[in-house]
Write a structure and sequence with these properties.
Radius of gyration: 25 Å
Shape: flat
Distance between the termini: 71 Å
Number of domains: 2
Amino acid sequence: MSANSAETARRSAAGLHRAVTLLGELTLRGAAALRNGVEILGGVALLMGDVLRRSASAFFSRKSKLNRTALIDQMVRVGVRGIPIVMLVQIFIGIILALQMAPVLQQYGQLDRVADIIGIAIFRELGPLISAILLSGFAGASIAAELGAMVEGEEIKAMRAFALDPIRFLVAPRVWATVVMLTALTIIADVIGVFGGWLTSTMVLNVDSHNYINATRAALTHRDFLTGLVKAGVFGALISLIACYQGLNVTGGAEGVGRATTATVVKSIVALIATDCVFTAVFYALGW
């Protein structure tokens, strides 16, 4: 019995040791993740402050104007080239919403109300959010990779050596281009998403086209449209700032550029969903 008791005590001690070790590892990993998150949040906030200062200086001073050519080029790359993919995805979103909601609404004899759900959901949430996620995938990753390659090629150091401000010439045009073009893309996404719902409802669900349009107009208000645009502007700033921060802090050569690109997409999506949650809670509290 004494030998068995000793073996049981040894096993219990070993199990306790493993549990404490696992708890310690999880704590250290959590602390590291929290520290990394705070570091990124602070870096992005400082970068945003720099962009706002440079932009204000460019607005009030003729000697420090933003590069209009770079701004237009970024708007074309970020916004114009993103129109086809945004339209394609949003029309599918409209179709999916119509087909998913139809069986439930038919049970209550309210199939015509599918227009209300599609219109509000797309204008308030899915239009800006899906467009922002798509933009983070191709524009945010591209910005991070481009700036990261410039850092590794010491082009940023060369700009500073010639007294050229990277924030003014590289970061600010990308930030403002992303903010403006994501807002424009959201408007396109709203229209195309509602069109996808209308197309499915009229051709598949046999909803009267005139009734669908009237229901959409009655359901939507200016608040639905404006809240979506506000979200789009903030989302655009988040994507571009995170991408620029990751790109400017690249280390480790080509592998570091790859890590920055991946981190940009992942962190942008997390930041977008978290920010959308905050917006939704605030608008709910305000009755919007």
